Amino acid sequence: MRLVLLTPFVAAAGALAQGVDRAAAPPPPPPDLAAAVRELASHPALAGSRVGVHVRDLADGRVLAQHDDDKGFMTASNMKLLASATALLTLGPDFRFVTRLEAHGPIHDGLLDGDLVLVGAGDPTLGGRHEKDGPRAPLLRMARRLRDEFGVDEISGNVLGDDDCQPDEVMGEGWSWGYESADYAAQVSGLCFAENVVRLTLTARADGQRPALRLEPETGYLTLIDRVVVGGDKTGIDIARRRGGNQATLQGRLASGAKHADAVSVDNPTSFAAHVLSECLREVGIRVRGVAADKDDLPVAIAAGRSLCEESSPLLRDVLRTLNKVSQNLYAEQLVRAAGRAARGTGGMVEAAATAADVLRELGGDPTGLVMADGSGLTRLDLVQPRQLADLLAGMWRHPHREVFVATLPVAGVDGTLGKRMQDGPAHGHVRAKTGFISRVVALSGYVDRPDPKVPPLVFSILLNNFTCDTQAAKDAVDALVQELARAAGW
To answer: Starting from the edge strand earliest in sequence, which strands make up the sheet with 63-67, in order?
Structure first.
């Protein structure tokens, strides 16, 4: 069933590439489409809010409906559309990050007489969800190669992490302090590991006792204070990490017989990666005399080293699918910075934003008024116009990388962050779009396909800001408009 639902998008992509769609006449939109947009803008639940909408027919370029589409809005995760397009057009769909293990000293008689350095390239996937054997697997592979291929059984110096491929920005500009412990606000870094979080699984024991606790990755880097009690029929657990450190407190109640999964971000992902690498080295029998640390925390500079082995990321096209399907913030932050580094030599957010503006211009949009303070949309400082997102989507539909880009987007009622939305009605299976949500912000932008795969889709961007109603009510209002767009497309 899933393949049937996705087929119109793939078929349309092939048809446009062959030019056959130019001969197909798009069906006229129903006369009430503009009225449906006005209805959203005047929806009682959205009283006092800001509503931005742009709907365009890509078959002939007509703007079918609009409302404040030239005004700047907070985008939430719709910013990932710009981050994804920027990475895809700048780096290419087959790009891979490469993380290196370097020896900073000679190797003789089983001794690495110096430091071992893990050199990051900004890869957000190292030890992440794409790793089938658990987060420690790539570091264990490196440790075993160091032992088996280079004969190392002892390191006289330190195990260090090198994140110098990008500036130490830590978090996105304007991110709330309240996000600091959250896995969705994991710190950015030139050296990432395990998506810069520790995942926890609590399993109930007897009532009144502490639950069994498992960490992934298993590491001593994070100190946990467990104050959770087992009992009752409801689970309510809070986890908070002390600011600027790696001590976290779990408190609350785990229901009898229950299991609970959670996650907490780590402070200094570079040091985290070095620490777990040191643990892996000891596990395979390599003695480490020194400490595990971020090399920037040492008082002396580290000289150039010799590359021993590498770990490569999945292809960018696959990383982008994860980024947009599940709305993975760290991936967006790292990928747009990598694009900035490739285009401008430095991987900071300033360079990333400038590169994104260039990409929007290349795709036919005008970046005037665009404010890109982060890559994920988690900040409230971002400002994007619905028209700009529609221009981006229209440009990507015409681009040679169109099929790669469109395949990253969730499908209404089918998968990703749209899997539980629009599970029936004309939009089901016929809308690919990026969701977005932060407090008082809901966004949805994407494509509505046509029954005739030779006819290009409708493109739309809907941005809601400053609503005071329940978030679900705001999402329902957006989804109702998208259902009307699907009817306008002929479903």
So the answer is: 63-67, 50-57, 458-465, 441-448, 431-438
| Cα 115 to the center of its chain, rounded Å | 33
pLDDT > 70 in the chain, percent: 94
DSSP state string for 329-358: HHHHHHHHHHHHHHHHS--SHHHHHHHHHH
Give CA–CA dist 345/362, Å, rounded: 20
Closest CA to 239 of 192, 197, 187: 197
- Supply 241's token pair: 């990490």
Report CA-CA distances (Å) from 329 to 245, 314, 415, 463. Answer: 21, 17, 18, 19
DSSP annotation of 259: E
Beta bridge partners of 164: none
- The percentage of residues in the chain with a pLDDT greater than 90, rounded to a whole number, is 90
Helices (H), strands (E): how many in the chain?
Answer: 11, 20
Q: Look-up: residue for tokens 């809005």?
A: 73
Backbone CA torsion sign across 323, 327, 332, 333: negative
Helix (H, G, I), strand (E, B) or coil at 436: strand
* Residue 132 CB neighbours (<10 A): 6
What confidence tens digit (pLDDT) does each residue in 416-430 have?
A: 999 999 999 999 999
Amino acid at 74: M
The residues facing 237 across adjacent strands are: 252
What whole-number distance in Å separates Cα of residue 155 and Cα of residue 163? 21
Residue pair 230/204 in contact (Cβ under 8 Å)? The answer is yes
Structure tokens at 43: 């929806």
Q: Quickly count: other Cβ atoms within 10 Å of residue 206's Cβ.
A: 9
CA distance 453 to 20: 10
Task: Record the pTM.
Answer: 0.92
- Eight-state DSSP code of residue 303: P
Helix H or strand E segment including 201: strand 197-203
**Contact between residue 189 and residue 196 where contact means Cβ atoms under 8 Å apart:** yes
Number of Cβ within 10 Å of residue 369's Cβ equals 13
The contacts found for 403-406 with CB under 8 angstroms, 24 or more apart, are: 403/10, 403/13, 404/88, 404/93, 404/317, 404/320, 405/84, 405/85, 405/88, 405/320, 406/9, 406/13, 406/432, 406/447
CA distance 265 to 172: 14
